[in-house]
Amino acid sequence: MAKVNRSTADVNRTAILAHLGGQGPASRAELARALDVSPALVTQLTRDLLTEGLVEELEVASSGGRPARRLGIVARGLTALGVKVAPDHVAIVEVGIDGVVARSETAEFDAVSPVATSTLIDLIRAFIAKGSAASILGVGVGLPGTVAEQGVGIVDSTQLGWHQVPLGDLLRRGLELPVVVENNVNALCVAEHLFGQGRGSDNVLVVTVGNGVGAGIIADGAIVRGRAGGAGDLGHMPVREDGPLCQCGNRGCLEAIVGQGALVNDARSIRLLGAHEGIDELRALADSGNADAREIFAHAGHTFGRALAGAVNLFDPDVVVLSGEGVEAWHYWSDSFEKALRGALVPGKRGTPVAVERWLDDRWAQGAAALVLATPFDAHGVSGEQGRLVRERFVTSLEVNR
């Protein structure tokens, strides 16, 4: 019997639940076609889901041929919270086990405040109070930075100004719920793989551009985290030896050249923007036809395209998904980006599709929630003790509702 890649199986089991919850009952053959996986793998995965009480076999449907048993989801009432933490705001969503966002909120947030973590706890508590805490399996948090272990959640983030912040422990004590913490682009990558442009692909590169530049990598169906959770730090790829100073302390990093702060600085250096104007004003100038503003975006697109070509040549993804605040001005990046990207790719990779997805906070937070939804099937133990606690809540809830 062929050995099954358990990380791939974990994601596919979550995808099966998402499909059944979102699209309704389906046969095993329909699931295999919809998720683009083998019928044998679907049979194996659904056998596990049936054993665990997550899905059930419904009435036999037949149209004259061999009857096909349809599967339906059992645990419709269970949810997970997803939290996206940014330097100036927090987005929170509640997501059903089918992957559908049930409700969402966005609130102002000051990451560098001395009471930032207490404020975050209060925001999440207030969100929980508006729903049913009993149905929540756990909380997933996505943020810009490095998280060595999801289930521990110690955070280093230059964007947030956090160093060795024990966020996971603080949230667990403050919320009395299981909590998993992950880099925000990795969390977004999970959402894209399960529900978005990367669905049905085992090798996906998700790249975000905004204040910083980040990448999430799915290889053979599993997130690549690296030795200490820092894989995909595309923004700190060195591209110019004598370039501008980056927030990481090095010079000439990609995000120090194409990040929104860098573009604003470029505009101020030629007196295109005033000291108190920012990226919105720069985009407005480009919209009005200002040639200098458009050139700033075009130059960023060229640099970004060449850097991304290096990542595509290295990882050989099925698809590249671009997102983040920067895509709001993508039409000013796109021409120079495409020329630079395709010109720097090796011949066999020049046809790699690039999908630009509208930037939405909900999708980022949905990815954080998906981290929780995947923990009951976390065969590799990436979520550690928190995965076990999520599973306990999961099983207890099923037993109560039987």
Q: Mean of residue pLDDT?
A: 87
Arrangement of strands in the largest sheet: 6-5-4-7-11
Q: Would you identify the CATH architecture of the largest domain?
A: 2-Layer Sandwich
Order of helices and strands: HEHHEEEEEHEEEEHEHEEEHHHHEHEHH
Q: Major sheet: size, sense and barrel closure? A: 5 strands, mixed
Q: What count of helical segments does DSSP give?
A: 13
- Overall geometry comes to globular
Radius of gyration: 22 Å
Helix content: 40-55%
What is the strand tally? Answer: 16
Question: What's the level 1 CATH class of the largest domain?
Answer: Alpha Beta
The first-to-last residue Cα distance is 35 Å
Low-pLDDT ranges: 1-7
Tell me the number of structural domains: 3
Strand content: 15-25%
According to CATH, the homologous superfamily of the largest domain is ATPase, nucleotide binding domain
The CATH topology assignment of the largest domain is Nucleotidyltransferase, domain 5
Organism: Microbacterium schleiferi
Family: Belongs to the ROK (NagC/XylR) family.
Pfam families: ROK
Protein name: ROK family protein
Short description:
This protein is α/β, with parallel strands linked by helices and 402 residues long. Helices cover 42% and strands 21% of the residues.
Explain what this protein looks like in three dimensions.
- The structure is a single chain.
- The protein is α/β, with parallel strands linked by helices.
- The chain has 3 domains: 6-73, Arc Repressor Mutant, subunit A, CATH 1.10.10; 79-188 and 361-401, ATPase, nucleotide binding domain (Nucleotidyltransferase, domain 5); 198-356, ATPase, nucleotide binding domain (Nucleotidyltransferase, domain 5).
- Helix content is 42%, strand content 21%.
- The chain contains 13 helices and 16 strands.
- The chain has a 5-stranded mixed β-sheet with strand order 6-5-4-7-11.
- Helix 4 (116-129) runs parallel beside helix 5.
- The longest helix is centred in the C-terminal third of the chain and has 25 residues, at 291-315.
- The two termini are 35 Å apart.
